[in-house]
Structures are given as C-alpha cells and as structure tokens.
Amino acid sequence: MTAALILSIAIIAVGAVLWIFERNYRRRNRDNEPEPQPKQADEECCGMHITCEKDSLLASVSEKIEYYEDEELDAFKNRAADSYTPEESELFREVLLTMRPDDIAGWARSLQLREIALPEDVRDELIMIISEARKAHASVS
Question: What is the pLDDT of residues 27-63, one digit of tens each?
C-alpha cells in the first residue's frame, strides 16, 4: 500500500514539474515571436493568392452573377460535369477561348453561382489558363 502511495505521489510530482516547464517554455517562445503584421487592405488583388477576392473561383466571395455574353449556357444548369457531349463541351470551350484573360476567373465564378458545371476537359483548360496567367503576373512583379 505504501509503495502505491509513493508511486502516485512521484507521478503527480513529475507531472507538476513537467507542466511548469511546458508552461514556461511556451511563455518564452510566445514572447520571442515577432508581432503579427496587420493585413494591409489592397484595393486591387495582386492575383497571387488562391483566395483573392478579385480572382477567386469560390462562389461565396461574390453573390453577384455576371454574364459574359454566355446566356446560352444557362441551359446546362444542374448538369454533371461528366455528362456533356463533345459538341456541348466545344460550346463551353469556344466561350472560354474567346474571353479576355482577366475575365476568365470571373466567368468561372459566375458559372458556379449559376449552378453550371464546366465539362471536365474545359475545366482542366480553365485551370491551366488561370495558372499560366498567375505565373506570368508573378514574373512581371
């Protein structure tokens, strides 16, 4: 019985010492960390971040639906991305390839808001075009 009591007291003492060391360690590291810099609100997106409001493909960023002379695509609302015929995919591709480069991300966001899924092959092209545009923008900056 006394051995169990001594063992329990030893475990509690070791736990208390470790807790104190951990607490002091975290306090020291927190004091040594640089102050986080406040985010500067840019009026225009730099285009280098995936979550950029201007260039984001997330529908939750903007609720405004913009049309890019593509009203005919509304006929494809609620279609699965893998259900398009080659002719239908070509219609999406034609709109994509005739668009100004700075409108492409907004167009994709507009399609999401309109619940229109891009055909898989066109979606891959869209991602490639946006990626190349971001790389080109990064090399200029």
Answer: 777 666 565 555 554 444 544 444 454 444 444 456 7
Q: How far is CA 73 from CA 87, 117, 122, in A?
A: 13, 10, 13
Amino acid at 112: Q
Give the count of domains, the chain.
1
Asked if 104 contacts 130 with a C-beta cutoff of 8 angstroms, the reply is yes
Residue 102 resides in a domain: yes
Residue-level pLDDT at 86: 94
Placement of tokens 């259900």 in the chain: 83
- Please give the average per-residue pLDDT across 75-90, as a whole number: 93
Contact criterion met (CB below 8 Å) for 88 and 119: yes
pLDDT at 61: 55
For residues 85 and 12, what is the distance between their CA atoms, to the nearest angstrom?
70
Half-sphere exposure of residue 122, counting CA atoms within 13 Å on the CB side? Answer: 25
| 126, 96 Cβ separation under 8 angstroms | yes
Q: 79: domain range?
A: 71-140
pTM of the model: 0.55
In a domain, residue 105? The reply is yes
